[in-house]
Amino acid sequence: MSDFLTPKATPETAPFWAGAAEGVLRIQQCDACGRHYFYPRRFCRYCHSTDVRWTTVSGRARLDSYTINHRPLRGTESLSPVIALVQLEEGPRMLTNIVGVEPDPANLVLDMPLTVDFEPRGDMTVPVFRPASTGSAEGTR
């Protein structure tokens, strides 16, 4: 795995990466307005309050948009070629990869239910999403 694919934690993102290493998806929630948001920052993106905290979320999402990368960069061939924007059940959108499905538009229906999974990238773990199984009530690992 190429080093440029390994995410780097910062003080603002450390709880996100620690959660991913534990197999849980964490994002921030504002205690002033109650909204969840992503990407990590010190203040709420909606009301600008600094009264924010990290919370574990459901890991359920819906496919909002995607592209299939047919010409991967050298060193990225092992990654899913499906690069997607997913909308978390809690509201925020997240850029990620879709795994566990053949990279064909016939298999990638917009608004399809997804569930979080995690895969290693170097010495870090990143959240990815896969189609939700129809028999799963929980939706998380």
From TrEMBL:
Gene3D superfamilies: 6.10.30.10. Pfam families: OB_ChsH2_C, zf-ChsH2. Signal peptide: none annotated. It comes from the Bacteria. Residues 17-52 form the ChsH2 rubredoxin-like zinc ribbon domain. Residues 54-118 form the ChsH2 C-terminal OB-fold domain. This is DNA-binding protein. It comes from Trujillonella endophytica.
